[in-house]
Design brief:
alpha+beta, ph1033 like fold, 24% helix
Length: 140
């Protein structure tokens, strides 16, 4: 199993939007960066992802799971980009902010800080565990 971080503008697609989707499942589409696309292609069914709100919020809201591996993104007329299907898993009781990550020396090499513009990031297990711990306990 691998771990990922998916970024979204909450005014475009939020945790709540995903939750309101049928079976709390939706297509993660609209990615138009080749490195992010390649990360989507590496995702396997049951991999876990952090759901990250960008923009003014800049925080990890909760976790989701990959329920369908990559397929062509229907919104891409050139057929170069892909989507995956994700399902909401756990909403953090205490979201983990980008600021709290930046202030913690443990995260000095965390990819979120190194490649801050990339929308789909691979997350090392040590960072996954630490962020989950920082969220205290999490709920559905």
């Amino acid at each position: 199993m691998k771990y990922w971080l998916l970024k979204t503008e909450p005014n475009v697609w939020s945790w709540q939007d995903n939750y309101k989707s049928k079976l709390h499942t939706a297509e993660w589409d609209g990615v138009r960066n080749y490195q992010a696309r390649n990360n989507l292609k590496k995702m396997k069914k049951n991999d876990l992802c952090f759901f990250y709100h960008t923009g003014d919020e800049k925080k990890i809201i909760g976790t989701c799971k990959v329920v369908k591996e990559y397929f062509l993104d229907k919104s891409d007329k050139d057929k170069k980009f892909v989507s995956v299907m994700i399902k909401n898993e756990k909403k953090f009781l205490q979201p983990v902010t980008l600021n709290s990550i930046k202030q913690n020396p443990f995260f000095k090499d965390f990819i979120l800080l190194k490649q801050s513009r990339l929308s789909v990031l691979n997350v090392d297990i040590k960072y996954w565990k630490k962020i989950c711990k920082m969220s205290n306990i999490y709920q559905n």
